[in-house]
Amino acid sequence: MAWLRWHLEGNVLAIVVSLLVAAALISVAIFGTPLRNGHLDSFGPDWECSTHEWGDPICIKKMKP
Questions:
Q1: Using an 8 Å Cβ cutoff, are 59 and 46 in contact?
Q2: Within 13 Å and on the Cβ side, how many CA atoms surround 22?
Q3: Which of 9, 36, 57, 64 could in theory staple to 32 by disulfide, Cβ–Cβ 3.0 to 4.6 A?
Q4: Are the beta carbons of 51 and 38 closer than 8 angstroms?
Q5: Half-sphere exposure of 49 (CA within 13 A, CB side)
Q6: Residues 36, 30, 38: CA angle, nearest 5 degrees
Q7: Can you tell me the distance from the alpha carbon of 60 to that of 65, in angstroms, rounded to the nearest whole number?
Q8: In the chain, where are the structural domains located?
Q9: Nearest one of 57, 35, 32 to 48, comparing CA atoms
């Protein structure tokens, strides 16, 4: 009955890989991707960035009142 034996090394590796994939999917579902959140070209909430058809985005730091 060799086919009934558990191969512990293969099972542990499969479990670890499955947990890593699940963690990646959950983090994307919770936090989203930069494109979906609109934070691709921003340095933070105190910066205002505008994209153009060509070239890099232009970012300006907002002044504090």
A1: no
A2: 6
A3: 36
A4: no
A5: 13
A6: 20
A7: 15
A8: 2-61
A9: 57
